[in-house]
Structure formats: C-alpha cells, structure tokens
Design brief:
The chain is α+β, with helices and mostly antiparallel strands and 353 residues long. It has 4 helices and 8 strands. Strands 1, 2, 3, 4, 5, 6, 7 and 8 form an 8-stranded antiparallel sheet that branches. A hairpin with a 4-residue loop joins strand 3 and strand 4. It is elongated, with a radius of gyration of 39 Å. The termini are far apart.
Length: 353
C-alpha cells in the first residue's frame, strides 16, 4: 500500500479470503488474483473521510477499492461473495473458508457503505450551503421557440432520445443477466471445488478399503487364534508363567477388538461420504441447468439490442433526411429574403423619385 496513506489510514476490520477478479475479456469467468488466501482489510481515512478495501499479495496491491454508497456486496453461495468497482472497471470476488467469515465481511461491508453514504450526504449539505450563499440573482429559464422545419427536427431528436433510453434500459437488463450468470458461475465453481475434494476423498477411500478388509481378516484370524490359546490355557488350568501369558493374551485380544471397532467406524464414515458425493453431483447439475437458462436469456436480450440498434440506425437516417430538407428550406428562404430585399430597395427608389 502507498506509504503516505499508512500515516492517516487505520484498519477497522480484517479477514482472510481467496481473491478473484472477473475476466476483462469475457466478463464471465473468474481469474484468481492470489495463489493462497490473503488478508483483506477495511481502512478508514479520517482526513478525507473515506473508506477503502485493501488487500496486498506479495509486493503489489490486488485490491485497492474506495467504498461508495452505490456499491453492493452480493452473496452468491455459502462461502463466496462479490461486488463491482466502477472506478477500476472490474468485479471482485472473495472465497472464504467458512460461512461465518462471509457473513462477517458482508455485515462490515454494509456498515462501511452506510458510513460512506452519511459522509457523502454531509459533504453535499455543505456544498449546497456554500452554493446558496454564492448566488447573487436568480437566472431566467431559457425560452424555446419551435417553428416550421425546426419542429420536425425537435420531434426527431425526441425520438432519438427515446430510442437511446430504450437501448440503455435493455443494456441494463443484459448487464443484470450477466451478473446473474456470474453468480451462477461462482456457485458452480464452489460446487466443483467441493466435488473435486469429495471425489479425491472417495478415491482414496476406495483405494484403502481393500487393504483395510485384508487387515480386518488378518485381525479376525489373530483374534480367533488368541481366543483358542486362552481357551487352551483355561482348560489346562495352569499357574505361574501361564497366568502371565494369559493376561498378555487377554490384553492383546482387547486391543485388537478396539482396533476392529475403530476400523468399522471408519468404513461407516466413508460410506456416508458416498451419499454426500451424490448430493453434490445433483446440486452441480442443477447449477448447470440454471446457467444454461441464463445464457438463453442473455441471447434473447442480445437479439433485442440488435433490433433496437437497427431501429436507432433507421431513426438516425430519418433525422439526417430531415436535416437535409431543413437545410434546403433555409436556402430557399434565404433566396426569398434576398429577392424581397431587392424589391424593397426598388420600391424605395421609386418613392424617392
């Protein structure tokens, strides 16, 4: 972080998370900004009354974002959230280790955003007071005159403004669809990460099951053999060293039985993980299905934008045609005025004679 900000900025909250940035080319995929979890902190500048989110990876700042009242932190899954920074023209994403960390960061983001809003309102109130004191006299509103061909030009510009507003509205809808799609992709990323972990654990468990079964058979055989030895010792009713050997065999038998019980519990846990793996598979399929629906919606919005752009082009051509007609009418009017001026001069000469 910049050294001269260190002196006046104070940290107010810190956490650790994996940092991502949206791909500037596609505006859909996430690009990791850090290889590992890094510290993400909120800082407050008391001199400028400004809040910032800062995260440093190595020797460079991977997040340096001023919090504004218009920002919104969105939870896209149980451990992932994101917000957009219009100044940096990017979208940041944070992946947390626990759901509680995500909740704490979201609450702090909301608190800081409200504080930034109050600071801006106070600043605007001061500016309004200064502006009111500096006004010397009220200004009269401009008068608009519409006459003849200029009326056509005004109507053309109004239609142009209406089409531009429609275009902006559809672009906003498309942007919201893209944000929804990014949320689904982030959720899919989380599901795939959990899925890969479960698959790795399942493969490791399957690799060890056979080995554990062999060990289990060997332990059972050893247990039976020890039980037979204990039964033989009890049948002979020996004393002295035989009693000592009997105690040792009994202790070994108890240890083997405890080990068998622990292995049975491990096998039961691995079998329960298989059901969790199937649940994750089903959730991933649902996320993929929703992602496809959003892509279809985006395609429809793109088609509507193309139609709007075509209509806008037609309106621009119509406006150019009206401009040409208006220019021609102005030229004709100039000629008529020139002729009337000649006639007036001729009449003046006749009157003087």
């Amino acid at each position: 972080m910049f050294p001269h900000h260190r002196e006046r900025e104070q940290p107010i909250f810190s956490t650790r998370a994996h940092v991502f940035q949206i791909d500037p080319a596609t505006k859909r995929n996430w690009i990791p900004a850090s290889k590992h979890a890094v510290t993400v902190s909120f800082f407050y500048d008391s001199n400028r009354n400004v809040y910032r989110i800062i995260s440093v990876g190595g020797t460079k700042a991977i997040i340096n974002c001023i919090v504004t009242p218009s920002m919104t932190f969105t939870k896209t899954s149980q451990k992932f959230g994101q917000w957009a920074d219009s100044r940096a023209n990017t979208v940041y994403g944070l992946g947390f280790a626990t759901e509680q960390q995500l909740h704490q960061f979201s609450e702090k983001f909301k608190e800081v955003k409200d504080a930034a809003r109050l600071a801006r309102e106070k600043s605007q109130d001061k500016e309004l007071v200064n502006t009111a004191l500096s006004i010397a006299a009220p200004q009269s509103p401009p008068v608009m005159c519409v006459n003849g061909p200029e009326d056509k030009l005004f109507r053309s510009q109004s239609a142009d403004i209406t089409l531009s507003s429609e275009k902006e509205r559809i672009k906003k809808m498309l942007s919201e669809g893209s944000i929804c799609e990014m949320n689904l992709e982030a959720e899919l990323f989380t599901l795939q990460d959990s899925n890969s972990k479960l698959v790795a654990a399942l493969h490791e468990a399957n690799a060890n099951v056979e080995q554990w079964k062999k060990q289990l058979v060997a332990y059972q055989e050893e247990t039976e053999r020890l039980r037979e030895q204990v039964a033989d010792l009890e049948a002979h009713g020996g004393h002295g060293p035989s009693d000592l050997l009997k105690d040792e065999l009994t202790q070994s038998l108890e240890e083997l039985e405890a080990l068998l019980k622990a292995k049975d519990e491990e096998i039961h846990i691995l079998q329960s993980k298989k059901s969790e793996y199937h649940d994750m598979e089903r959730e991933r399929d649902q996320a993929i299905h929703r992602l496809r629906e959003v892509e279809m919606r985006n395609s429809e919005l793109e088609r509507r934008i193309q139609n709007t752009e075509q209509n806008l082009g037609n309106s621009l051509e119509e406006r150019d045609r009206l401009d040409t007609e208006l220019q021609r009418a102005i030229e004709i009017l100039d000629i008529k005025i020139f002729d009337l001026n000649d006639l007036r001069q001729s009449l003046v000469k006749l009157i003087d004679k």
